[in-house]
Design a protein that fits this description.
The protein has helices at residues 3-12, 21-33, 36-45, 51-62, 76-89, 93-105, 112-116, 124-134, 141-150, 156-169, 175-183, 190-202, 209-217. Helix 2 crosses helix 4 (51-62), helix 9 (141-150) runs antiparallel to helix 10 (156-169) and helix 10 runs parallel beside helix 12. It has 13 helices and no strands. By secondary structure, it is mostly helical. The protein is 65% helix and 0% strand.
């Protein structure tokens, strides 16, 4: 792909709202390329004064070169280095969210303490990205501690992903984890309750039986 075409696709990542389909389609195309040229532009964007540009640079690096056939990042060490360097000084919630999400996708366990320190951030979206990212490391001791805390979060999406990460993706079993999952059986959010049921069932905890019976016997 020519440099001009790469630049044009990068420019499309900045169009519209952050979560719009069009910019994310552009991010996907750049990730699929997975080339040194794409990496170099994305890394340069991470040094921008514009938080949206920084965020898009890290969005691209997060899964650069990853496809159904290739499960690893094209430049894992370099991408990790760029993202962690950017994270050290990042203050903007949008770019923080992208950096934390990228660290989850890069599958490098060194990121766990860097991600966990944002578990009490005032932004719901930042805390949500923490819960999602730590789901990539569900059996790490610090991940377990952090996800247990996030299962009590005020935001239901954060609770949902923390419960899913620890209860469903994770394999560690302890009385503390089972008690935390049992507490979420009474959560106000249905998705959280269902993740808790799966997590307790996985650990063969009998406290889930009554709720499973009600869940299965209730009419659709």
């Amino acid at each position: 792909m020519a440099a001009t075409e790469i630049d044009e696709i990068f420019a499309r990542t900045l169009k519209g709202e952050y979560n719009d389909d069009e910019p994310w389609e552009a991010v996907r195309r750049l990730r699929e390329q997975g080339t040194r040229e794409v990496f170099d532009v994305a890394a340069k964007w991470c040094d921008s004064d514009d938080p949206l540009v920084r965020a898009r640079g890290m969005d691209v690096l997060a899964q650069l070169g990853k496809t159904a056939e290739q499960r690893t990042n094209s430049f894992p060490e370099e991408s990790y280095s760029v993202v962690t360097r950017t994270l050290q000084h990042e203050q903007h919630p949008l770019a923080l969210t992208s950096a934390i999400s990228a660290l989850g996708h890069l599958d490098d366990a060194r990121a766990v303490p860097l991600v966990a320190r944002y578990r009490s951030h005032p932004s719901d979206e930042v805390r949500f990205s923490v819960a999602c990212a730590l789901g990539s490391f569900p059996n790490d001791a610090l991940s377990v501690e952090t996800l247990l805390a996030l299962m009590q979060d005020s935001d239901e999406d954060v609770r949902d992903w923390a419960t899913f990460g620890l209860g469903v993706l994770g394999d560690i079993d302890s009385a503390e984890i089972r008690d935390a999952l049992a507490q979420r059986l009474g959560d106000s959010n249905e998705d959280v309750r269902e993740e808790a049921m799966v997590g307790l069932s996985k650990r063969r905890d009998r406290r889930v039986l009554a709720l499973l019976y009600v869940h299965w016997s209730s009419p659709p």
